[in-house]
Every structure is written in C-alpha cells, then in structure tokens.
C-alpha cells in the first residue's frame, strides 16, 4: 500500500462529510415535512418516513424552505465565496427570486424582510437593504429570534472551513439579513463552528466548547441552554419556532437518538419526534449529523427520494456542496490583512484596548470571542476603508467610508477610545494623537 493511500482515504472521507452536510440537512428537512405541526400521526417510537404532505402539497421526499434557502446560499458561495458584498448581494437577490418563483411555507418574518427588498426596483445593494429591513423589524417588534436563519446556515460553514475567524462573522452577518436578533446570530455561529469541526474531525463535537465564539455576556446563558438540551429529550423543547429551543431540540436529538437503528437514522427520528416545527429541527440536526458521519451514513432510501426546488436531487447537492467547499479561500483572512490595519490594531492593543472587546479589525482573528458592542474597521472591495459601530440592537452604523487611510485611521482610533472610556474600563492619556511608528 503506498504512502498516498491513507491521504487519499482521508480526502475521500472529508469529501463524504462535505457532501453529507447539505444532504443531511435536506434529508432531515424532507423527513420532517410530513409531520410538521402534527400534520400526520406519528406513534411513539415509530420511525418517520418521507411520505410528503405536511403544510403544503409536498411530494414524498421533497424538501421545504429550509433547504431551498440553504441552496441559494450554497449557490452564491460556489460562485462568489461568502466574503464579499457582492456575495451577500447574490444571496439576497437569490432569495428574492426564490420567493417569487419557488418558495413554499415561507416564514412570516423572512417574507416580510424579503418583500421589502423585492419592492425596491433598484437591485443594487440588496444585502444592505435586507439588513436595514431586518433591523428595522427588530427595532419595531423586538421579536426576531425565530429559527429561520439557523435552518439554512450549514453552507456558510462549508464555505469557510479553513477560516474560523471569518466563519463567525459571516454566519452572524448572513443570519442578520433576515433575523436581526443577536440570539439568532449566536445560534448560527455556534452551529457553523460545530459543523466545521465535524467536517474536519469526522465526529460530532462538544457544542459547549464553541460558546467561546460568542460575546462574553451571553456565553454562560448559552452554556446553560446546551446543558439543558443534553439532559432532556427533544420533545421538551416544543414549541421550537424560537431559535434557542430549535437549537436545543436539534442538539437533544443528536444526544438522545431514538431506537436501535443506525445512529443518523435514530437521531433524525428523535428530531422529528420533537414535534412542532419538525422539518426545521430535523434539517438543523441533519446538517451536523451529515457533517460528522458523511453522506455515506444516510439511508439509501432517503437519498433516492430526496429532492426539491429548483429541480435538484441528491447528486446535485453532492456536487453543490463540493463546489462550495472548493471555492472557499484556503488562506485564512488573517494572513491577508494589510500592514496598515495590522499596525493600527497593534497600536490599540498596546494602549490597553481590547481586540474583540473594544474593536475588531476585519480579518484579524479574535481570540476568545467578541463583545456585543465594538468599533469595526475593514478594507472594502474598492480599496477604501470603512469604520463602523456594531451593537446588539439596531443597524450597524457607519461612521466613515473613505479612500483616505489617514482619515479612516484617526476616526477608528478616536471611536475605539471613546467606547473604552464610556465603559469605564479604559482611561485615555493626555494629548494623545496617532503617531506612525
């Protein structure tokens, strides 16, 4: 046996897990469709089947909006990656087209946000307009923590397998295109990091280990929710339209498989037996199970039957998943940060201001997670600089977009220092002004 054989086997196994991420979510979705909100009876201990029906005229094996929206993200990721404004615009315009042509059983919140984007005849800056609509809805209602962004988040993990620093940021950003509540973003960050580790390691990770990727203020709360899911069975978390209980139900199903069959089948059976939003809980659980165990662990009967908008079947999802993972930039973003951004970040650190706590420079990894409020700095696609404020509530507020680095740098430093001083955890020395070293 040649030395290359073990490497080839490892590569094949990883590819199987990449394919399993999309296929597992789709199979869970189609398995849960018939039983949503009690649409079909399911006896205690009964293994669910892809019999179609549910809340729409679904054919046996047909997936719902959970996978439909994930496919849109995956297509944009395969074409553009998920790092740029153009990529996020492609995601939103893809969703708008889907809403007009093939959407089924669309969540009220998602429909409202995308409807506002569709009503604007100017197709430019679609992601920005979606985010504005999403945050406006959150400001108006305070209730935007549905499970509709978590159900579709798996392709984000595939697009950024080699870049954990960017993964959390983009998972939260794509969640916020329709679901502005910080808890929805937290859930997407947690699940994407878990999927990434599952694909890379070939096993279901300890979800609680990933709370370090969340803002400090909410880590203990999420750790408690995860521990609760590990103690109780999935039905304890119904109703599960709320993003926290949806994640808990999915994680509980993985921790408490139902029956003596193959592990993936038993865990997805448990997810459907959670009741209520059965297709979404099973889609969420299926994406992580597929990432950990691979497409080869899914039932052949399921793979033969699963299909859906826009005319895709299992082999199409295999191909799409591979293209998303292949398109992901293998070089981590922190290796691409320009010298001037590195320099200003190190300057602030040397002055006692916390990276991830007071400020974030896009592309530099944040060790131990981010605050819920910070000042951001990034280079835009056209080479200009953006300085903005990000907080838990409301649209991220841009302070300045300029091609002049000196202007951007000074505004960034000033705003970071103001934030640090306002929190009372940092005191500015006298007569400070930025000096290049």
From TrEMBL:
Return the Pfam families for the record.
Answer: ADP_ribosyl_GH
Supply the alphabetized keyword list: Hydrolase
Q: Which Gene3D superfamilies match?
A: ADP-ribosylation/Crystallin J1
InterPro entries named among the record's database cross-references:
ADP-ribosylglycohydrolase, Ribosyl_crysJ1, Ribosyl_crysJ1_sf
Q: Which residues are listed as membrane-spanning?
A: none
- What family is it from? Belongs to the ADP-ribosylglycohydrolase family.
Query: What is the protein name given in its UniProt record?
Result: ADP-ribosylglycohydrolase family protein
Q: Which organism is it from?
A: Nocardioides potassii
Top-level taxonomy: Bacteria, Bacillati, Actinomycetota, Actinomycetes, Propionibacteriales
